[in-house]
Every structure is written in structure tokens, then in C-alpha cells.
Amino acid sequence: MTVGIDFYIASTLKEIPKSEKHVKFEEDLQDYLLKKEGDPAKKYGLLLNLDQYSDRMFSAREVNELVIICEHLLNEYSVTEKKQWKVDKRTKGINCFAEELKVLCLAALDRKKKVIAVGD
């Protein structure tokens, strides 16, 4: 089991066990981005300033903001098909996480549910 923050689609904490999909925000990726952006982070604050040991429920407005943050991360840490061999593991990890979280957030908005972040 790895340490980090898990994101779920749910309206309450009790619904989380029924959630069919979740996205893990690895602790090392959060630490790396915090060091790069400054702690507390201003640029991606809603995502990066999450407490790894508590839970957080995001409103629909905040879920939309998370989608925008993911799009910015995908642009900043892009992995092009032609040069994947040049991309380091951390960049791939950030890109993969941002893509998965964006999909999860859009699904939550579509279902009119919330996104809940659960720390370890």
C-alpha cells in the first residue's frame, strides 16, 4: 500500500466503499510539485495544499477547478507520443495522475456527485 491521497466519486463518506473507481495522488508526486510550486502552493493550491492525513469533499465549483488544474498539469507535464522515451518517470506519473483525475472529475460532474479526497 502506498501513501498518498485517494480521490473518489461520492456524495458522502459512506458512499466511498461503493465507488467503482478511484485515483491515487502519490505522496512523492505531491511533494515534488509542492517543492516546485512553493509550500503552500499558489498555482495549484486546491490540489497541492491537501492534507495527506484528512478527508476533503469538493463542491461542484471546486471539481470544475480541479479539471482546470489537471488541464494545466497535462500541458506543463506533457508526454508526446513521439518522444516518450525522453520523458522521465516523474513526468509520466504527473501526466497519468492528471489525466485520471480529470476523467474522474468529469464523471462526477456528469453524475452530479462530489469528489472526495481521502488521506491515508
Number of discrete helical segments:
4
| Strands, count | 4
The proportion of residues in beta strands is 15-25%
**Number of individual domains:** 1
Helix and strand composition category: alpha+beta
CATH topology: Hypothetical protein yfbM fold
Word description of this protein:
- Helix 3 runs antiparallel to helix 4.
- Strands 2-1-4-3 form a 4-stranded antiparallel beta sheet.
- The protein is globular and about 40 Å long.
- The mean pLDDT is 89.
- It is built from 4 helices and 4 strands; from the N terminus they run E-E-H-H-E-H-H-E.
- 46% of the residues lie in helices and 18% in strands.
- It has one domain: Hypothetical protein yfbM fold (3-Layer(aba) Sandwich), CATH 3.40.1760.
- The chain is α+β, with helices and mostly antiparallel strands and 120 residues long.
- It starts with a strand and ends with a strand.
Question: What can be said about this structure in brief?
Answer:
46% of the residues lie in helices and 18% in strands. With 120 residues, it is α+β, with helices and mostly antiparallel strands.
Write the layout of secondary structure elements.
Blueprint: E1 4-10, E2 22-26, H1 27-37, H2 45-48, E3 55-58, H3 60-76, H4 89-111, E4 114-119
Antiparallel strand pairs: 1-2, 1-4, 3-4
Task: Fill in the keyword field for this structure.
single chain, 120 residues, alpha+beta, Hypothetical protein yfbM fold, 4 helices, 4 strands, globular
